[in-house]
Model the fold of this input.
Amino acid sequence: MSRKPIEQMSDGYLSRTPYIQYILVSFLFPLWGAAASLNDILITQFKSVFSLSDFASALVQSAFYGGYFLIAIPASLVIKKSSYKIAIMTGLIFYILGCSLFFPASHMATYTMFLVALFAIAIGLSFLETSANTYSSMLGSSKYATLRLNVSQTFYPLGCILGILLGKYLIFGNGESLSKQMEKMPAAEAHAFGIKMLQHTLSPYRFMIFVLIAVLILFIMTKFPACKSNSSVKESTEKAGILETLKYLAHNSRFKKGIVAQFIYVGMQVTVWSFTIRLALELNHNINERSASTFMVYSYIAFFVGKFIANFLISRFSPNKVLLSYSVIGSLLLLYIVLVPNMTAVYAAIAVSVMFGPCWATIYAHTLEVVKDKKYVETAGAILVMAIIGGAIIPAVQGYVSDLLGSMRLSFIVPMICFIYVSIYFYLEIRNSKTVKKIDSVKEAPAKL
Done:
């Protein structure tokens, strides 16, 4: 007996999940996780090879997340005018282009050219994230939309672990740390050695190119459902122009607070992961970059575990209360890093990753919920993705503070302040939810009489 064909509902959701297409879309999540975690490797490598300050090395993240910021809304327009499949394929092509630019960058041996390559990768990833997050939730019935997205998102930290392992074994070498080796060499020899080390950055990106081409071919060959709402829904949505939407959102105070919280959270997460390797190298002069990168593997495993624990707790308790607890614990762990000048501070940085697990999705969902007029939701979601620009700015701030104080450990006061802000955000959300419940109970009171 043949199965009933998949039907598209009027709201864009499907009668059941097409598993091959869903698996392919879910496979995109570890692909951008690998790219993001490789940045943490590049920051350490570039600092030594180009003799950069911590602030200058943090520009790796600025170029990367700056691309996200600039492309989020154009990516959403491509989806609106064409399809999710076209947007995903566009993202994969830019991703391949960015990886390919590492080859001329390694031969030119200029920091600026590497930043251009990372910016191109970020353009591709902005297309992928803007399309895949929504598309994953749409590939099936609306009842299980959140579950499908959560399942897809669990693959993200696995990609992060893969990226770190590729960097650990293909970019970092054995022996003493790169900076120590170059300190012992005459200037000309150190320069030649640095250019040789830059060639190592090609290996993981060469691997990524082959994987991306294979995924692109699979997407070209596979037929995907449109998952677009019917014409009447489209017409009501298109009535809201970009200026009208921005004006509406500008007067929504809770939406603006959510944007700031997402900006702060993303910046905090990126900066902790960007400088964990540097923290380990500062606190233990007897380890090299390859050994120190193992701590990032532990961090991403902790992030993966933290997501599962949070999902369990959120299913039983108030999400805001769970996230408030996570944020307070995370703030205390970051305070420990600032105060304790030994290797236990590195393990505290790893533990902080457990607290990162549920933040992005929870802030995202809460912020969209306060947009009551649904014709503005599409653009509101794109603006939330743009809040990822925090990953470009906060690491640069911490790098500047590290240069100013002469201590990477003390500079962790920057993400500590960020986590305190996120704690305040969730505390205020708890108060707002109580106020809403009181207002609703007062409105219902006359009906009960």
In short: The CA atoms of residues 143 and 298 lie 35 Å apart. DSSP finds 22 helices and no strands in the chain. The chain has two domains: 17-224, 232-435. The domain at 232-435 is CATH 1.20.1250.20 (Growth Hormone; Chain: A;).
